[in-house]
Design a protein that fits this description.
α3 packs antiparallel against α4. The chain contains 5 helices and 4 strands, in the order βαβαααβαβ.
Length: about 170
């Protein structure tokens, strides 16, 4: 048996924001929200925690700086020391531009890979649009109905209170 959900489709972003806030206040569990574009304040209305992707970006950036500085120091001071104008072999100011570029490269690529892994996106994955209208002009609110304390009639009335264009019950 799959998960039962209640789906409400809205015509405007103001309706979906109000419905999301009210759903949390009334104790409904929001499974997901689909929108045709990013809606400001929707993550707060859903009660989502802040993303941890900035920490991943920071770690990958540090990895890039450390690898660039380590490689340059090893190359210039250990493996192939060259006397360039009497400067020391381990001259940190000369290493800064390359270290910065490696930091940006590692942070960018690492963040993209982390995002893809976290979202379970990989090449060849078949896209299955659950709500085709959400990619065009509708805002879709999905409430988890698997718990026994959610009354279907109360949820339908809730959707109607916030001007839902369509409300339905589905099993996923």
């Amino acid at each position: 048996m799959g998960r039962r959900v209640l789906i409400g489709s809205f015509a405007s972003e103001a309706d979906i924001l109000g419905a999301a806030r009210a759903a949390r206040e009334r104790g409904f569990r929001i499974a997901d929200i689909y929108t045709p574009y990013a809606v400001h304040g929707l993550d707060e209305a859903m009660g989502l925690r802040p993303s941890r992707l900035p920490w991943a970006c920071f770690v990958f950036g540090l990895l890039g700086v450390a690898s660039a500085l380590g490689f340059q120091f090893w190359t210039m001071a250990v493996d192939w020391p060259l006397n360039v104008g009497g400067k020391p072999w381990n001259s940190l100011p000369a290493f800064v531009p390359v270290a910065f570029e490696c930091m940006v490269l590692f942070a960018g690529l690492g963040l993209v890979l982390t995002f893809f892994l976290r979202c379970r996106l990989f090449p060849g994955k078949e896209a299955v649009p659950s709500f085709p209208e959400a990619t065009d002009d509708r805002f879709v609110l999905v409430l988890d109905h698997s718990e026994a304390n959610v009354d279907t009639n109360v949820a339908r009335q809730f959707f109607e209170d916030f001007h839902a264009v369509r409300a339905e019950e589905r099993e996923e």
